[in-house]
Amino acid sequence: MATQHSQSAARIMMAPAVILLLGWMLVPLTMTLYFSFKKYLPLRGGDLGWVGFENYTRFVSSSSFWPAVATTLIIVGGVLVITIFLGVLLALLLDQPMWGQGVVRILVIAPFFVMPTVSGLVWKNMFMDPTNGFLAYMWRAFGAEPVQWLSQASMPSLIMIVSWQWLPFATLILLTAIQSLDSEQIEAAEMDGASWFSRFRFIILPHLSRAITVVLLIQTIFLLSIFAEIFVTTAGSFGTKTLTYLIFQRVLESQNVGLGSAGGVYAIILANIVAAFLIRIVGKNLDA
Amino acid sequence: MARAITTQRKTINTLFAWAVGLIIFFPILWIFVLSFKSEGDAIKAPFEVLTSAWTLESYATVQDRSDYFKHFWNSVTIAVGSTLLGILVAVPAAWSMAFVPSKRTRGILMWMLSTKMLPAVGVLYPIYIGFIKLGLLDTRIGLVIVLMLINLPIIVWMLYTYFKEIPGEILEAARMDGAGLREEVLYVLTPMAVPGIASTLLLNVILAWNEAFWTLNLTAAKAAPLTAFIASYSSPEGLFYAKLSAASTMAIAPILILGWFSQKQLVSGLTFGAVK
Question: What are the alphabetically sorted keywords of the record (chain A) (predicted)?
Fold first, then answer.
């Protein structure tokens, strides 16, 4: 039984973490909201007064807004489809009996630990460079003209780089989920003559659905805010400007803080919609 | 009964899985190979690269030209510092939530998780201007604080998950024997919590090491950790493959090794215990 004494001690012990996070959340958030209603140009006159919702309407009506939304959705959607589809296949493969399973697992998850700036630059220069890149040599070896990856096929290239980084995450989580599956159930189905496909469709896939949802939501939150990969590869050109990147440019490059802050508020709202779903799932687990 | 697996099937699995594994790992392997080549050899066709001479010169050049170890040390300070500070703040909080839960515990945990979902770019300017005002821009202490705050929810969650698995009866037994709160924490709980704290430490050092939004936006030359240092190879230095490879190898090798040790914790840590 928790006594009155330990209850108040517990509150004191929790205080630093709660106060720090509360401050970290409320102070910048309030400031962003404040700036978003102002015309605020630090390098061109500073605070030029209140403008109501003008920044919000201007941000949405600017010509780069809808392309940025589309780019964001294509990157997030593309990476999700690739990583979850390949992740399921890879997890099924890694679950099979084989020699050197531990080593293969290590090879597969390695890209997750590569810092985003390294993977962006290495892919850009050493693989996707049209003259000396690895892929250019491969293309030439087969008599094909090397592709100008990051300018001609900027979106597929970017999606590929980011998928390479996130595939290990999806695979690892899905593999963990597969391994928690009761093998007797599969054996029973096999004995009853269920084909490989129906075993996958009716036993494995339903069992994975929860893990897939978790991968989907966590990756969405991270992918909505990818930054470094774009920063070092295309710097937002060739149609790769995401919402995050657009806000970054408004705030730090063109120093239009009011406009950027309004964009930031949109980004926060978007992330919260996704987060609400994730929190519901994680919360369910907390009761169990 | 385990299913009988034919050797033939196992061989096919093995070949296929290794092929896929090597393809995924290949870019990292290639960074490693090119880092031991001269600049002239590194841009040759892949097959010629392999047969050319091996050299350590790129590693020496990277250090000479850019004071690599300064940035390496910045990364170590920021990653380890922010994690330790985070654990210091999180241990008491996670302890009290796990052992003295109240009606609000669940709500507080959920709220902490939700702060993690706040997109960084939404609060970029306030943090940026705050850093300038407080003189924290381009300092290691500034980044230690920011990364600590970013990872604090994950740290609390991970520790909470581990602490909850410690049986409460042991604490009751200790209390019966007359142990006070201090003794309880120091002699009973701490030894049992060390493995959980260690894995939390490991995963968060990795996350902080690779963080690349705040480290890019809040540092310049002085406090730049490896993420920002490597970004300076953006162009035109990135065309020097051997040097980029040497710098990259040194930036990812330590974390790759730590990462391989943290495989298990990674799943429950990054999914907030939703997948175990």
Answer: Cell membrane, Membrane, Transmembrane, Transmembrane helix, Transport
One domain, residues B176 and B50: no
Q: Which structural domain range is residue B49 located in?
A: 7-58
Q: Where are the domains of chain A?
A: 65-240
Q: Are residues B49 and B83 in the same domain?
A: no
B31 Cβ under 8 Å from any chain A Cβ? yes
- B250 within domain boundaries: no
- The mean of the pLDDT values for chain B is 85
Model pLDDT for residues A214-267, shown as the tens digit of each residue: 888 888 888 888 888 899 888 888 888 998 999 999 888 888 888 989 999 998
- Which among B22, B27, B126 is the nearest to A32, CB-wise? B126
Q: Please tell me which of the candidates B121, B126, B248 has its beta carbon nearest to residue A244.
A: B121
Nearest to B48 by CA among B37, B57, B58: B37
Stated as kind and residue range, the H or E segment containing A48 is strand A46-50
Least confident of A61-65, B29-33, B38-42: B38-42
At B80, the pLDDT band (50, 70, 90 cuts) reads very high
B183 and B130, same structural domain?
A: yes
Q: Which pair of structure tokens corresponds to residue B260?
A: 């391989």
How many domains, chain B?
Answer: 2
| Calpha distance A143→B165 (Å, rounded) | 60
Residues 171-230 of B with CB under 8 A from A: 181, 206, 209-210, 212-213, 216-217, 226-228, 230
How would you write A119-176 as a 3-class SS string?
Answer: HHHHHHHHHCCCCCCHHHHHHHHCCCCCCCHHHHCHHHHHHHHHHHHHHHHHHHHHHH
Q: Does B261 touch chain A (CB under 8 A)?
A: no
Q: What is the pLDDT of residues A157-207, one digit of tens each?
A: 999 999 999 999 999 999 988 888 877 777 888 888 878 888 888 888 888
Nearest CA of chain B to the CA of A224: how many Å?
Answer: 8
- Give Cα A284 to chain centroid, integer Å: 23
ipTM attached to this prediction = 0.86
Nearest to B14 among A98, A127, A227 (CB): A98
Query: CA of A139: which chain B residue's CA is closest?
Result: B45
Q: Are residues B81 and B217 in the same domain?
A: yes
Q: Which residues of A touch B120 (CB under 8 A)?
A: 225, 227
Residues A266, A273: Cα–Cα separation, whole Å = 11
Q: Does domain A65-240 have CATH number 1.10.3720.10?
A: yes
